[in-house]
């Protein structure tokens, strides 16, 4: 025995696959690491542990790249028992919290140690390893046992006990290739769903399948097609657009060339017995049962063996057995919420289950014997007490017996059996049903808790991804689209987002999405005619009945109008559209307030199709999402307002348009760096001073933001005012320098090139310029030579006493004067800079070009100098004296 234990301890898991990646110490690496782990595990077919692995990896990589500030090395190892993931960083000196009697982890919300706390909670095994240069945290997730390919044989049954099927049972055989496209579609598939082989072959199965979307509780269709074997229920849309519930068995095979494909056998849901293959009990268990005889487990006696391994299957088996046990016509089972105030319908038979599923009823309906679900109750005739059991209203059921499901004295659910005739049940039947409920209560609660745990883990992964997406944009429209796309179809069938501009404004319908794109226009038209929901700050989901009532009323009116058409053909846009919209909106609709900074900024509306309800867990998840979405939407609003203000202010600092200067071509190009969230910086101006004289300026204020914008506005308006008062260029700049210094702490340095331009009758132009600390203007002559057209002088905003002088430049016909800001000359790529020499080289190639062509060529040269976008504003002012046009000679 000791040797066997030692051998077991020494055995290490066999590694069958490995994937590794390194992520830089930046925030976006966390999302990249999550995507890497998710894609790797899904590619290996380990979908059962993907959510836990993603959550743990997210926390550990965050510790490495954000808190430790180092690169993160992520390694995924597939073993014969599960998956091991290792996350390493290059900061081994960090303190590692230890779980022991004397050391506490602290709050889970604290940044340090949360990743290890999650490892302790979710992983099968985990640990921390150190080297001289690295620290590595690893965790192991074991795979659950997945029996596949099992077989079973049932007992001989009397004919009346056999499952009911159509006279001609049709089994659709559909083959799917490795890309998910349909490659084979048999005759029974055409009969069941209305599509011919020509219409189906080549299409994706996902285009036909209506797969259940409950986060964390089910395998996706793409994942199911990758499994070696899969069996279960879903829906397929037929040619008329209806969803037909089906039961399917998938088997993954490969041909002689090694190409994989999936063979799907599909029947109608009510004929599932044709394909269903329940798991066989191990021989040891069967022997144990035969030896125990009458002492067999009470739960197995009632449920049957083997018991379903999922909550929905267990609940459905329970109501079917309860109905059969009391020879009833219907049965239902409700599960209690955590606070035991409400019961949620989770399974039924003999009732319109789609209408009732996830509907909620209060535990305490009133006083008296029948007023609580905590006690057994018998109703001999429901017609005598209408509304006593709301679940059975308008179902034809007359008598009913209900019993509670309790675990350790706590209410966990309620089980009921009903019959169409009155007086069918007495206290004796209530005792029998209570005895059965006591047998299965613990198993049902255990399965419910397991489902809640899976849902919680899936919800946590969902919220991590949602927060990452919402934090990645500051665009209002994109934020609205993300909110809707994250909820549909994961949480709801359709979604509408209302926004409120201010406290006095009415809610505005801003975005609508439905899982079926053909329904979006009809849904939007319907909601636009309905009064928006009342904005309330109360947290939680509030039921909103207006959309379903309006949809049903519109559908009814359309149907009544259609009755007058007789046998004529209905128009394509007639009743079908309204009826389809009513079906899409006819289920439960809830509204969640979007509250940010103690103000309601909108409402998130979620809806289900006809007769469907929301699960409480889904509503709680939606509430968490709405809080994150509200903050993201408000941040986007604030950013948009700030950007609009900045852009408006920036436009006010630049001249609205340039005047026409006789005899001189003028071209200006202005490029603001960044995303328009800062103002100030570079500016330019060209304005008439008096007849025949024009002033021009190009400048650069030190810094950006409001202070720089104040100096920019001061400079542009002061230049115009002083120049038109008749002051010379040096006098204008000296007075501007004094005005800047008067701003005190708000003042900024300013480099400025200012000049006055006089077009001459002979076709030339005379300029008087003052260059105060600005890049020197360049003059291009007709022969291609380039020279500086001014000398450097002190910049403005530094010294009180400036002695500036102006220099006169004459531009001959064909000459160009180029003025730029330092965003042009200081264009960089690594250690390279364009500089004055690079600008001169570009300008020498512009001989004979117009002013507009010169400015454009300089801009292209700046943009092509480096691959990265420019990080500084730049302004380009080009002035050219055109050559005289030759008079055509008369022959």
UniProtKB/TrEMBL annotation:
GO molecular function, one term: phosphatase activity
UniProt entry keywords in alphabetical sequence: Hydrolase
GO process annotations (BP): regulation of DNA-templated transcription
UniProt domain PAS: residue ranges: 173-205
Protein's recorded name: PAS domain S-box-containing protein
Keyword Hydrolase attributed: yes
SUPFAM superfamilies registered for this protein in UniProt: GAF domain-like, PP2C-like, PYP-like sensor domain (PAS domain)
Keyword Hydrolase (UniProt): yes
Coiled-coil portions: none
